[in-house]
Amino acid sequence: MAKITMIEAINRAHAWEMTHDPDVVVLGEDIGINGGVFRATAGLQEQFGKDRVQDTPLAEGMIAGMAIGMATQGLKPVAEIQFMGFIYPALDQIANHMARLRNRTRGRLTCPIVMRMPHGGGIHAPEHHSESLEAILAHHAGLRVVCPSSPARAYGLLLAAIREPDPVIFLEPARLYRLVKQEVADDGQALPLDVCYRLREGSDVTMITWGAMVTETLRAADTLESEGVSCEVLDLATLSPIDHDTILESVVKTGRLVIVHEAPRNCGIGAEIAATVAERGLYDLHAPIKRVTGYDTIMPLARLEYDYIPNAARIMDAVRETFAE
Amino acid sequence: MKTVAEFEIKYCQFLDAAGNLAAGAPPLASDTGELLKMYRFMTLVRLFDTKAVNLQRTGKLGTYASCLGHEATHVGAAAAMQADDVLIPVYREFGSQIWRGVKMSTILTFWGGDERGSDYTAARQDFPMCVPIASQILHGAGVAMAMKIRGEKRCSLTLIGDGGTSEGAFYEGINLAGARALPAVFVIVNNGWAISVPIEQQTATKTLAQKAIAAGIPGVQVDGNDVIAVRHIVSEATARARRGEGPTLIEALTYRLGDHTTADDATRYRDHNEVKDAWGKEPLPRLRAYLTKLRVWDDAREEALKAECAREVEAAVDEYLSAPKPSTDEMFDYLFANPPKDLAEQRETARRYAGSHAKPGSGGH
To answer: I need a labelling partner for B276 at 20 to 30 A (CA). Which of A62, A87, A247, B209 fits?
Structure first.
């Protein structure tokens, strides 16, 4: 089995589903002949034609809105927003219509749509190209928000997202697109949504994270292990709805929780996880919950971005603090 | 400098305010069966609208957006559609919806504060009434894109108000439709007022139809109080769309004879004489006068029609008022096809506390 990158895995998931489901259509800016600015859709227009793989006029709100219209006619649009920082004009359509149409019409009209977009920093991109805005989407009922952290999970979760009868915001950590290669069977097997993935078993501390921060967290866990700290690492994977049961189960076992995310701390998804653990599992904790997050600042431009993004050093210190007397 | 592009905007009217028919009117003008059918629906909608406002005033309906004066535009546009075309309406186009088979009781259910009011028993692919201004334009384009991809001989018809043409989504939608030659028709219902802001303050353009020029599509203006002209112009556009010849933007000139909604008081910002003049051009009397001239209408038939429509409206009101309050489960049960497990707990909480709130307006501090 060939080893592939996350971007290749995303490309193959598109191709698999388009081959097996004629209702799947792909939309976005520069996604046709150019194959997308990251090449996620490379070769798809050649293979499936210009009707099913469409370069759209340049308007993000329009992309989301047209996807809604198409979905109500039985198509399954997979739409790319070029960078997450450009999602704002599409929020009206996503929040007011995509997330609500099933509910508004008592199930008469639905939106089986995937909105894909690069997420987060670390690729020395220009301004507005490195944002982590999952919290503003997770706050809306009617949406799923998913973020893979490896080629295999990108493949399986994207297939699941396309097959889901409701809208899914699919966040692709740009930093991981080409970082590692992994063996991924191109077999059309989806991975389950709405569940955490346990990447490492441990007994002393639960570390929960997602996207590009999974790499940093695993790195921290390796070093901590050599110091005698047994780390359990969970990949949240579906950021909304959160799989609280798995997190709580792990916290009951370890008694410590460190949450890591690249997005700003204030009203971040880490706050929701911490609050739920406090509500349901406070007496299982041996130490206060720690959050390691992006700062509550504007995402800086490239020269400071690695000073903004949480790294293994910050994560390790946070874990060590949970052992402080 | 040389001229590189030139444009003109045509205006269409067949039936003037007095009910005189212009020369060159289409065959529709002598199709008494269709004219009577449209007159019947316009009358029904007028009575429905009056009743709905009364229901709101007596506390039996929530805030309601009256369609008084828009009957010809709404009925004429819907009459230009096939059953399998898709209507994407705003929140005021009851004439279009009722023509397409949406029940009056369902419309009342929506304005009575119940999502079941968007679960239509007919025209089930039609969109629900859109509240965020102009956002529906993109749905119309998207529906048309799906029809085009599948090579279907259908079209979408999207309605939008004059204020909506100031929104970015309006331009994005007509631009997309033009760029991809989509089977989409866009009808601007220009009633002169976006709540308190008159059309002169929305735009410097002489017409709204000419906004089509920026999208590279045909734009035409029609007397929105002349149902013959509206149906004729919209029919040409829907037929053109279904033939694969692309979208059309139509501006229907009408007037909002009522307030924006029952929560609004238009006397705060609108000149009484302007409204009085508009009543002189409203759509129903001119069609009635024309039908009378054709000798297919008289006072007796008018009275019979009004009585029949009133009975129909009363039956709809009874059906609306007799529907039980939705259960709290309704908040949860249509969010997802595959609901997340944590939602079940909140559903139980809502059940447990259902009806336990203090009476609105009581207490305070």
So the answer is: B209
Nearest Cα of chain A lies from the Cα of B281 at a distance, in angstroms, of: 36
pLDDT of residue B364: 60
A314 lies in the same domain as A210: yes
Same domain? A143 vs A266: no
Q: How far is A216 from chain B (nearest CA, A)?
A: 29
B260 annotated active-site: yes
CATH number, domain with residue A82: 3.40.50.970
- Per-residue b/e over A193-209, b at no fewer than 16 CB within 10 Å? bbebbebbebebbbbbb
> What is the enclosing helix (H) or strand (E) of A146?
strand A144-146
The total domain count for chain A is 2
In eight-state DSSP terms, residue A40 is T
User: CB of A64 within 8 Å of any CB in chain B?
Assistant: yes
Asked if A228 is an interface residue toward chain B (Cβ–Cβ < 8 A), one would say no
Q: Are A205 and A31 in contact (CB under 8 A)?
A: no
CATH of the domain at A268: 3.40.50.920
Residue-range domain boundaries for chain B: 10-322, 327-357
- Among A59, A68, A102, whose Cβ lies nearest the Cβ of B335? A102
Cα A77 to Cα B85, B91, B134, distances in angstroms: 21, 27, 22
- Token output for A24: 């799947």
Q: Is the residue at A191 inside a domain?
A: no
Average pLDDT along chain B, 365 residues, taken 10 residues at a time: 95 98 96 98 98 98 97 98 98 98 98 97 98 98 98 98 97 98 98 95 97 98 98 98 98 97 95 96 98 98 98 98 96 96 93 89 65
* Pairs across A and B, CB distance < 8 A: 140
Predicted TM-score of the model (pTM): 0.97
| Binary contact (A62, B169; C-beta < 8 A) | yes
Q: Do B172 and A62 touch (CB under 8 A)?
A: yes
- State yes or no: is B269 an active-site residue: yes
Which among A148, A183, A218 is the end of a domain? A183
Whether residue A140 is contained in a domain is answered as yes
pLDDT band at A1 (very low <50, low <70, confident <90, very high): confident
Task: Based on the fold, state whether residues A8 and A102 are members of the same structural domain.
Answer: yes
Q: ipTM of the assembly?
A: 0.96
Q: Are residues A173 and A65 in the same domain?
A: yes
The whole domain housing A67 covers 3-183
Same domain, A179 and A216: no
Residues in chain A: 325
Say if residue A128 is in the same domain as residue A232: no
Residues A175 and A212 in one domain: no
Residue type, B350: A
Please give the class, per CATH, of domain B10-322.
alpha beta
Q: Does A34 touch chain B (CB under 8 A)?
A: no
- Residue A189 placed within a domain: no
For B298-330, give one letter per residue: b (16+ CB within 10 A) or e: eeeeeeebeeebbeebeebbeebeebeeeebee
CB within 8 Å: B132 and A92: yes
The answer to whether A65 contacts B173, with C-beta atoms less than 8 Å apart, is: yes
